[in-house]
Design goal:
mainly alpha; elongated
Length: 147
């Protein structure tokens, strides 16, 4: 019995990972729309807030969209490699990108209230996980011939 995964198993994992990214991407778009509505209905109105606090709301709102779009893109185009380290790096990258959406959505809820001085590490970790996941996917494909 070989310890190497079969091509059918890799294909199933690839499809499952793509579906997970698509679901996360669509949920991220939904969270983006809902966070926009929360800003629209916010009391006092967002436009009347001090500049730093207003920027915190708007930037965290856009961060959600960025992570959602990366997830949607991976959901459409991701193809896991069949070889060990490249596939493992892609899976790790996907987990980081999925985590980034959660962290950035939490940052929208938690960070704006304190303005610039009240920011937490959630958005920073959200961006670092998005960057790390993107780099992992890039490195997993670097040096390979285009299909």
């Amino acid at each position: 019995m070989s310890s190497r995964p079969s091509s059918a198993k890799i294909a199933r994992l690839s499809i499952a990972t793509r579906k997970l990214h698509l679901i996360a991407g669509f949920l991220g778009i939904l969270v983006f729309v809902l966070s926009g509505q929360a800003m629209r209905l916010h009391e006092p109105p967002i436009k009347s807030l001090e500049g730093g606090q207003r920027m915190m709301f708007l930037s965290r709102h856009i961060y959600i969209l960025g992570s959602a779009l990366v997830n949607l893109t991976l959901g459409l185009y991701l193809k896991l490699e069949s070889r060990g380290w490249r596939k493992n790096l892609q899976v790790a990258g996907s987990l980081l990108i999925l985590l980034s959406l959660v962290l950035l959505a939490l940052a929208f809820v938690d960070e704006p209230g304190g303005g610039i001085a009240g920011r937490s590490l959630q958005s920073a970790f959200g961006w670092f996980t998005l960057l790390g996941g993107g780099l992992a996917h890039f490195l997993a494909r670097a040096g390979m011939a285009a299909n």
